[in-house]
């Protein structure tokens, strides 16, 4: 049996915005903390701060999220408990808008990896909610992650974006974390979506559902208010797949 890693980092990443990335990050983090009972940290790196808004217990905007990377603020000082028991949060704020510029100036390709390593004694799983696009920040994320979960809407444009990420990783050379593509916002009534699912039957799929939309009203993960709903069960199954990949099973 494979030895469990002391810490594993899962990046929820997409080249495109609007693919359900925050929904994935929140629900996978919930599953980690609540189903697997892992010591879990959700690190919101997206300046839109949607994950932070959904589960933060701190209403103040500190504008310090970028300062972690320039060593102006010690990383643990920005960790807060979330509204989910067992799940901690490093919230995003608008200071992250200039994070790419900071990374270029610093020229330290593994700054995020080093910060994650420093948290290894405190956490078992770190979930990264990443900004979209191929940027300096995404470079840092792709180096730091042990697994990259990519939500893909069943459409040609979204699938093309997924292919671009795969090509980019190959072109960089060297080893990179495994990619786990997951169909997102699936509507099986649509011919285009059914065709995409038929073409990639091995990909997990998360449906388009009004229950998921309720997350923004209730400001809770699915498992906290609708654990028996089909989307909550699909996210739980996805988390089981993530854990198996991390453990090499």
From TrEMBL:
InterPro entries per UniProt: AAA_dom, DNA_Partitioning_ATPase, P-loop_NTPase
Record domain AAA: where: 9-163
Domain of life the protein comes from: Bacteria
UniProt-listed PANTHER family: P-LOOP CONTAINING NUCLEOSIDE TRIPHOSPHATE HYDROLASE, PARA FAMILY PROTEIN CT_582
Name listed for the protein in its UniProt record: ParA family protein
Organism: Sphingobium terrigena
């Amino acid at each position: 049996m494979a030895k469990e890693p002391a810490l594993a980092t899962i990046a929820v990443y997409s080249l495109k915005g609007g693919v359900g990335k925050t929904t994935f990050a929140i629900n996978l983090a919930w599953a980690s903390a609540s189903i697997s009972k892992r010591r879990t940290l959700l690190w919101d790196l997206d300046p839109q701060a949607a994950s932070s808004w959904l589960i933060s217990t701190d209403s103040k905007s500190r504008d310090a999220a970028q300062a972690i990377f320039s060593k102006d603020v010690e990383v643990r000082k920005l960790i807060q408990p979330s509204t989910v028991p067992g799940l901690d949060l490093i919230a995003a704020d608008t200071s992250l808008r200039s994070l790419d510029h900071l990374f270029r100036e610093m020229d330290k390709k593994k700054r995020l990896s080093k910060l994650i390593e420093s948290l290894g004694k405190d956490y078992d799983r770190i979930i990264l909610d990443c900004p979209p696009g191929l940027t300096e920040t995404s470079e840092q994320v792709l180096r730091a992650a042990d697994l990259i979960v990519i939500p893909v809407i069943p459409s040609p444009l979204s699938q093309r974006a997924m292919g671009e990420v795969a090509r980019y990783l190959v072109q960089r050379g060297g080893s990179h974390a495994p990619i786990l593509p997951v169909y997102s916002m699936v509507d099986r009534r649509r011919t285009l979506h059914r065709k995409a699912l038929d073409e990639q039957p091995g990909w997990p799929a998360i449906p388009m559902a009004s229950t998921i939309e309720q997350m923004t009203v209730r400001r809770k993960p699915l498992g906290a208010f609708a654990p028996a709903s089909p989307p909550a069960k699909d996210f739980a199954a996805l988390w089981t797949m993530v854990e198996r990949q991390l453990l090499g099973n």
